[in-house]
Amino acid sequence: MPSQRRKRPTVQRLRQKLRELHPRHDLVRFVHRLTGLLHAVFAHPKSTDQTQAAAAAPASATPPTTRLAHRHHHREATPLAPPRQTPPGYQSIRCVTPTEHEEGLHDHPPPGVPYHPYRPYRSYEDFRAAEAYHLRELQAIEELREARRRASTGLSYERLVASNWASRATSYRGPEFSLETFKSQDFIVKDFIETLSDTAVPASRRSGNPTRQVAFDPKPLIRTFEHALARLGTLSEDLELQENELSGSVRRAEAQHSQKTESLGRKLEDAIEQFNRLDNSLNGGPSDGVDGETGGNVAVRIGERLEELDRQRQRAQDAKFLIQCWLEVSERGDLSSLEDVRRLGGGDGKVRCAHIARQLLRLSHRLDPENLQMNGQRTNGADASGQNGAPPKKHNTREIIEKFLEMLEKDLLKQFDDFYRRQNFDGMRECAAALRDFNDGASVMGLFVNQHQFFIDRSQLVTEEVAGDSETWDRLADPDAEPPGVDPSLQSLVDEVRLVVQEESFIIKKAFPYSDEVLIRFLQRVFQQSIQARLEMVLEKANSISSLAFLRSLQAARSYIGSLVEDLKSHGLTEHPEPVTSQVAAMLDQQLEDLFIPYLLGSSYIEREKKNLEELYSSLLFKFTVYQSKRRKIPTSYLGSLSQRGRELFASAKDAYMERLRSADISSSQRSMMLRLAGIKEADSDKEIEVSEEDGQLSLPVAKRMLKWLAEGVGRGLELSGGNDTPKDVQAMLGLLLSHVGEIYLETALDAAAELAASQENIKNNPPDISYLYSLRTAIGILHLLQMSINTVLLPLASTSLIIRREIEKTTNTTISNLETKISNILQKTIDVVLSWTTKLLQGQKKQDFRPRDDDLVSLGAETPTCLAVTRFLDKVATQATATLSQPALGLVLSELAIGLRSQLLDHFRRFTVSLTGGLVVSKDATKYAELVRGWPTSGSSAADAAGKRGSQDGNKKSANVGPGGFEKGGMDILVEVANLFVIGPEALRERLRGVSGAEREALRSFVRNREDAGSVGVQAVLAGV
User: Is residue 404 domain-resident?
Assistant: First the structure.
């Protein structure tokens, strides 16, 4: 293989090897190995010394031709070893390239570099020598090319080569790097090796023509890596020196640390030993060699004894001073010593002065009673003054001491007020502590509370009337509107109280040693004077509007003031940021309860709620009751049996309501609200009330309004008076609800519907009117809503009392059962009326309809007129029932109608003789009836769909097994099967009747006998066989 092709893979493998070296020691080791390898391959052993000597000599001392020959010529004195036999497959190391052939370089080698022909190498040494020769030859050829390119400049070949080697020997400087290069975190060994390799290649070669093949020159790499190796060695030595220095410093520091630790350990042991000795000496332990009584226990007893002696000394001094003051007041009539203490003693002196004055007053009560005579009383020959023969002179000590105490108290109160105005909390605290002995501080607490600016300002606002626009009060009295909330004036007061109390609690805590007592008194004054006065005014104003306005205002006030109490508790007041103490919390709860006790005590609240609901319900149902009372007065034949009690009930309800409107107890605003709910005007209250049919109909929105008002009252009751009385209150509310919604509203409407249903039985010429079913559907919806409301809202609230809960359930079940019975009776009456009219229509069936003449064969394609009349009527009834009733009531009604119709039609077909052509008419009618009933939404349809249609042989079993709960979808198919009995021939008839027995056989025989050809031989044979 030519050498020019072998050069590039060799360089690539070298660079790849350099990139794979990561650790620095691997790099150094590789550079060492690479340098030795390059020296072994390219450096001649004898020419190396000569080359160095030539390089050391000046450039001018040796001619260029000699230096070139010396450097590149392979001397004849050292010939290559004789070549061995070329191994198979090997080629020459050096081949002539096409470029060299064109330039003639292979024929004319450079001066001093003879061209050697190919000699196959015989060993590894031969290969190394041949490779070295090959590289030198390539370098010489490259220099010759350079000389030819520079020929135009006048430089000779020898001078050019000499200048190149001189510049290389004198100007080479290897890459510079230091320890900082390797300290960087971004240092990568591959990049470092590539940098060294790039710096070793001359710039001219890197930027030359890439298409030209240049011989590989390893010497720049050798010099670069030698320099790098030397530099790395120097750095390694520097690192080793630094490491040795640091190691020595570490060893010295460790030795010093060990010595210091040992010294501190000894000192710690000494301290522990001294502490143990001191502890044993104080505790009287046996280790100190002395008696235990001389140790710490003795010191404790000595300290206690000293404290006791100090207290005795203080009591003796106080007793001495007390006796001195008593002598002064009893003998001289003054308290100069106490005056000095009061003036000069400061805060503690004032406290001591007040305490001694109180003791002097007690001494005066015991030693100087009021019944003591002022003059002439002697005891054992001595006068009262203790001097014989001297005139007695007594002073009123009690009066003097009381005057002093009064003066001291006034002085302290005045100082407290001055300190309060200047916000001197320390001075206030001293005065408050001194005034504690005067009625337990009642005077100073009263001064602080009574003179507070909040009460002074609010005292002028208490007399103001409750403001508010008329729209707010109208919303408050409107039961259908949302409550507007608390009164603005009360809200403003409560908000101000919240801020004032939080601010003053800070002052109370700093100014009073007994801050909780002062805070309690301040809060009591706030609740009992300010809040209670405004609350009474607001409730009085609301009560003048309506009962509902009063209840809503009471609830809003209770909620808002309750939030004030909770905010004060969470704020902490004097304990801020911690919650208030249990004493203050209990006081706040008690004040809240005291505010509303007058309105919630006993049964007063629930009576107000009942009164409010009665007014609302009566107003809402006024026109309904008037309409029902007028309806009952209509002279009709079926009304004769109605009870007089019902008429009197409605008449009394109307009169009571009108009397309530005319009463002076209600305000004008409440009267307006009641008239608005009743739907009448003020001018019409004294006239006859005009009502329409719509006023007498049931309305689901009306029932929802009534239940909504009840729910509002129940929620309000839970918030205001929730407790042990809740089950009783719920029971009272339930009675009111059942009375108005159940009896007055639902039961009355159902009675009216029952009367209308009963009246339809007496109508003979016109079809029955079942329009009352519309009100029946509304009644069922209201009843369901009523039951659900009771079970959801009221019953859970009565769970705490088992007896009341059972009573509520019993009352509710009785009322609901009564109403459901009325609804069932109305539906049954409706079914009876419809079937009665159907019977009347079927009676109009002509005998010739089922025995037509030959000229009536044209009419065989249509149903009979009776069938058409029945189906039209029943279709109208089903349409009205579907529009007015809902499941399951609709399904039950239509099922009953279907069962009754089927029974009527079977009896109807038994009464007629049917000819063969008449059998076709019967089939048409039966099919029409079956299609009509099949389209009804009966409750048994789904069951019939699942079971599928049965065969015609068990048709009678269907009618026998149908109960009141539903009707099969194919239940009318038996009519078609019966009609087939009139059409089929004797043989088919025999097959139809085969296997039939019992009641079904007799029923089928009765139909077969109605055939016109029943007397024929074939039919008689069939009947005989059956």
Answer: no
What distance lies between CA 406 and its chain's CA centroid?
Answer: 64
The separation between CA 718 and the C-alpha centre of its own chain, rounded to angstroms, equals 26
Strand-pairing partners, residue 947, are none
Q: Are residues 663 and 768 in the same domain?
A: yes
Are 807 and 859 part of one and the same domain? no
- Domain's final residue, options 208, 232, 256: 232
pLDDT surpassing 50 at residue 635: no
Closest to 74 (Cα-Cα) out of 115, 125, 38? 115
Using a 10 angstrom Cβ sphere, with 0-12 exposed, 13-18 middle and 19 or more buried, the burial of residue 144 is: buried
| Amino acid occupying residue 366 | R
Q: Closest by alpha carbon to 75, among 22, 132, 119? A: 132
> How many domains is the chain built from?
4
Write down which residue in 570, 601, 632 finishes a domain: 601
Mapping DSSP onto H, E and C, the string for 292-333 reads HHHCHHHHHHHHHHHHHHHHHHHHHHHHHHHHHHHHHHHHHC
Q: Which residues span the domain enclosing 585? A: 452-601
Number of CB atoms found within 10 A of residue 727's CB: 20
Same domain, 817 and 848: no
Q: Do 983 and 862 belong together in one domain?
A: yes
**Nearest 5°: phi and psi at 465?**
-75, 155
Distance (Å, rounded) from C-alpha 401 to C-alpha 385? 20
| 768-811: pLDDT as tens digits | 888 888 888 889 999 999 999 999 989 999 888 899 999 999 99
Please name the amino acid found at residue 227.
H
Element (H, E) at 379: strand 378-379
| Helix (H/G/I), strand (E/B), else coil: 218 | coil
Strand spans (E) along 112-267? none
Joined tokens for residue 746: 């639902």
What are phi and psi for residue 91, nearest 5 degrees?
Answer: -120, 180
C-alpha angle with apex 698: 693 to 704, nearest 5 degrees? Answer: 140
Q: Which residues contact 286 (CB under 8 A, 6 or more apart)?
A: 292
pLDDT at 22: 47
Co-location of 869 and 927 in the same domain: yes
Residue 66's pLDDT is what? 39
Above 70 in pLDDT, residue 301?
yes
User: Looking at the structure, do residues 787 and 865 belong to the same domain, yes or no?
Assistant: no
- Alpha-carbon distance 136 to 140, whole Å? 6
- Judge if the upstream peptide bond of residue 117 is cis by omega within 30 degrees of 0: no
3-state helix, strand, coil in the chain (%, to 5): 75, 0, 25
C-alpha torsion 697→701→703→705, nearest 10: -140
Length of the chain in residues, anyone?
Answer: 1026
DSSP states along 454-503: HHHHHHTTTTSPP---HHHHHHHH-TTSPP--S-HHHHHHHHHHHHHHHH
Mean pLDDT confidence for 873-901? 87
Say which residue, 1003 or 11, is predicted with more confidence. Answer: 1003
Q: Which two tokens stand for residue 262?
A: 């040992």
Question: Quick check: helix, strand or coil at residue 439?
Answer: helix
Asked if 32 and 99 sit in the same domain, the reply is yes
Percent of the chain surpassing pLDDT 90: 14
Tokens at 796, concatenated: 């859970």
245 assigned to some structural domain: no
- 345 assigned to some structural domain: no
- Answer whether residue 919 is part of any domain: yes
What does the alpha-carbon distance between residue 566 and residue 560 come to, in Å, rounded to a whole number?
A: 10
DSSP conformation letters of 1000-1011: HHHHHHHHHHTB
**Do residues 486 and 622 both lie within one domain?**
no
